[in-house]
Write a structure and sequence with these properties.
Elements: E1 22-24, E2 38-40, H1 45-62, H2 64-72, E3 79-83, E4 87-92, E5 104-109, E6 112-117, E7 120-125, E8 130-135, H3 136-140, H4 147-156, E9 164-167, H5 177-188, H6 203-207, E10 212-217, H7 221-241, H8 254-261, H9 268-271, E11 272-276, H10 282-287, E12 294-301, E13 304-310, E14 316-323, E15 335-340, E16 345-348
Antiparallel strand pairs: 1-2, 3-8, 4-10, 5-6, 7-8, 7-9, 11-14, 12-13, 12-15, 13-14, 15-16
């Protein structure tokens, strides 16, 4: 007899929908991790693909967290996509408006994160106040007969040449090797690009500048739904590992699941009840700053199931998932993990000093608080 599979979000079973894929607790848009926690046979393919995937794409392109994750480019992606109605970003490197259009990246150097510049083709998308950055070196590695290159070419062919900017390193105004490589690449992708104007700044002038990032960022409904989904995914993983899957079907959590699916709308302030900016884990207090990783936790607070999420070491979102059933309101209810996109590890967190550096593996459980 085949065990019934039930979607923790829409409530449909395997007689109504399929369960061929798996749902990552931390979306892959925020990195890949060894032994990444997933929900298997718990989220149906429709919810995963039709609802969550488009939301996650908009989150990556249109939020502060998505922007900074792409500035790290941990996984050497060949294109960066930024912008939308809820995110406006400007860069300033002190060399004039033309060079302010360069998209800067973050690299780890000498124990600190430094801004760096990578040869790139920037494609403006004025119709929705956004842009795409194509990384020349990474695209050159693509198989010309592969799906990625063909899909990229199909999109680039529709680009107006006047919306293309090319940035590359040169030792002098006459050093056009990298520029010519980028021009050849954009033409190979299908754009009839003709250079009209060029500017030059010395390499040392650029790398020694302090790059200023100016952001206007609003947490819209799409972002709030994705953050809430991550919070509920994590809670679901802990409940399932604790053999308390029935808790996920409790009517107290129906409203938040309907909100994630877009079945209902709620004021963002009712879901994300607060946004904090201070350091709140021991290692960050010692280091005197935020660690560029993802943290997620949940506890019981005033009878509510409350999750805290911080992505890429930025602001912390406090999210209410619903009233916690009375029988789960106990001292050791809660759990916390740190997702490290640099080393691709997932680490359990605890408030109990006896467990620090003890080698005890802190797994996924709803009773991990002490």
């Amino acid at each position: 007899m085949v065990e019934k599979e039930l979607c923790v979000y829409c409530g449909r079973d395997n007689t109504q929908v399929t369960f061929k894929g798996s749902e990552h607790v931390m979306p892959r848009l925020m990195g890949t991790f060894k032994d990444s926690p997933t929900l298997i046979h718990c989220v149906c393919d429709h919810c995963n693909s039709a609802v969550f995937n488009p939301l996650e794409t908009r989150f990556k392109e249109g939020t502060m967290e998505g922007l900074f994750y792409q500035m790290h480019n941990f996984e050497n992606k060949y294109q960066i996509r930024v912008g939308g109605k809820n995110l406006k970003v400007n860069f300033s490197i002190g060399l004039g408006d033309f060079f302010n259009q360069i998209f800067p990246f973050l690299t780890y150097q000498s124990g600190d994160w430094k801004m760096t510049l990578i040869p790139q083709i920037k494609v403006l998308r004025p119709e929705n106040n956004s842009f795409t950055v194509l990384l020349v070196t990474e695209i050159q590695k693509l198989n010309r007969d592969g799906r990625d290159f063909k899909e990229l070419s199909a999109w680039v062919k529709k680009v107006d040449p006047k919306n293309v900017r090319i940035f590359a390193f040169a030792d002098s105004p006459d050093d056009v090797g990298e520029i010519n490589e980028a021009i050849a690449l954009i033409r190979e992708l299908g754009v009839d690009y003709k250079e009209k104007k060029s500017h030059h700044a010395g390499h040392e002038d650029i790398v020694q500048k302090q790059i200023d990032v100016q952001l206007e960022d609003t947490v819209g409904e799409d972002a709030a739904r994705i953050l809430t989904k991550i919070a509920f995914n994590y809670f679901a993983k802990c409940a399932i590992e604790s053999e308390r899957r029935d808790l996920l079907s409790h009517p107290n959590f129906q409203q938040i699941k309907d909100y994630v699916l877009g079945r209902i709308t709620l004021p963002t302030k009712k879901v994300i009840v607060d946004i904090a900016h201070e350091t709140d884990i021991y290692d960050e207090v010692v280091a005197g700053g935020r660690i560029p990783g993802h943290r997620i936790s949940f506890v019981e607070q005033d009878g509510k199931l409350v999750s805290r999420i911080s992505l890429i070491g930025k602001r912390t979102y406090i999210i209410h998932l619903g009233e916690l059933p009375e029988e789960y309101r106990c001292e050791n209810f809660g759990s916390a993990h740190f997702f490290d996109p640099i080393r691709h590890n997932v680490l359990g967190m605890t408030q109990n000093p006896a467990k620090w550096n003890s080698g005890i593996k802190i797994g996924f459980s709803i009773f991990n608080r002490i």
